[in-house]
Amino acid sequence: MQAMVLRSPGQMGREEMARPVARAGEALVRVTHTGVCGTDLKIYNGAIRVECPLVMGHEVAGEVVESGASGLARGDRVIVDPVLFCGRCFHCRKAQTNLCSNGKLIGRDSDGGFAEYVVAPATHAFRLPDAIDLRTAPLVQVAATCLHGQRRTPLFAGESVVVLGLGVSGQLHVQIARARGAGLVIGVSRGPFKREMARALGADLAIESGEGAVAKVLEATGGRGADVVIESTGVMPAVAEAIRMARFGGQLLLFGIISAREGALPFYDLYFKELTVRNGRAAKAEDFPEMLGLVERGAVRLEPLVTHRMPLGELESAIGMVEDGADGRLKIILDHT
User: Is the pLDDT of residue 325 over 80?
Assistant: First the structure.
């Protein structure tokens, strides 16, 4: 089969590889579409260390070719859950499979979806409803991680939610919060395209980040601050903003992956407001069916988030576009067909 192989950080090329074989309990999936994300960028440039050669790609949709387990049939359209777990360790026994001590990620610790075929445990291949197009299906994996974070964050009907950062994850958080019954939903971003997108996808208000953003959130919430603030940028200054935007007794969901080891935060406000801080890491199996249901009934829209489609052979260019991060650019989907 043809695959895009990472030979070393920054060095990638198309190669011919042996087609993987599905063993008992596994499914062989013919990949039709994959998504490109920041994790792929970090693996590509060496920020996340991996063993090379490696086929990256963990946002994978396609059709089952072979199945070594009951429940899946040839031709089934599926989305792959790339988070592998052992089922035996302390965290797995606590139903925290996303925190598995022996956990692995398809596309990071084993060959992934930037190829013609990929193998995954049959338990990690979820059938796609007819209403979900394979061309947008890779976004279900991203959305499931957003849903996992929000499911860890109690939200009562009518409560206010602020989403800081309106990239792909932020746009999904806006929609999921609305689907969960949020009242006022506010998106915050420096990019005008992203703010307009958030309005189109259900945000009541979309404001520019930076000086004055906290005051606008306070004004919109009657001076109290938001019940829930979701930080989806992964930068420390946004966490400080999130603390200031939250009401007394409110909640913070730190969803963005923060790589900084130190930074200035208003720690007294964090204490004095008695804020509850949570984060979400990856997703669990139960998040996928619920997310598929939200997309199937139109509560969460994926198509508007796909701004670029490219052939698999242009993977390196797509990774460069992810790094560029220009306004007007959201999800890049690679078409393998």
Answer: no
Q: What pLDDT does 258 receive?
A: 86
Q: What is the model's pTM?
A: 0.96
68 pLDDT higher than 90:
no
CA distance 80 to 134: 12
Q: What is the pLDDT of residues 125-182, one digit of tens each?
A: 999 999 999 999 999 999 999 999 999 999 999 999 999 999 999 999 999 999 999 9
Rounded alpha-carbon distances, angstroms, from residue 175 to 190, 254, 300: 19, 17, 6
- What the chain holds in terms of domains, given with CATH numbers, is 2-144+283-335 (3.90.180.10), 153-279 (3.40.50.720)
Decide: 209 and 164 in contact? Cβ < 8 Å.
Answer: yes
Q: Counting beta carbons within 10 angstroms of the beta carbon of residue 251, is it exposed (0 to 12), middle (13 to 18) or buried (19 or more)?
A: buried
Find how far residue 166's CA is from the centre of its chain: 12
Other residues' Cβ atoms within 10 Å of the Cβ of residue 125? 28
Supply angle C-alpha 158, 164, 169, rounded to 5: 90
Looking at the chain, the whole-number percentage of residues with pLDDT higher than 70 is: 100
- Mean of the pLDDT values across residues 98-110? 98
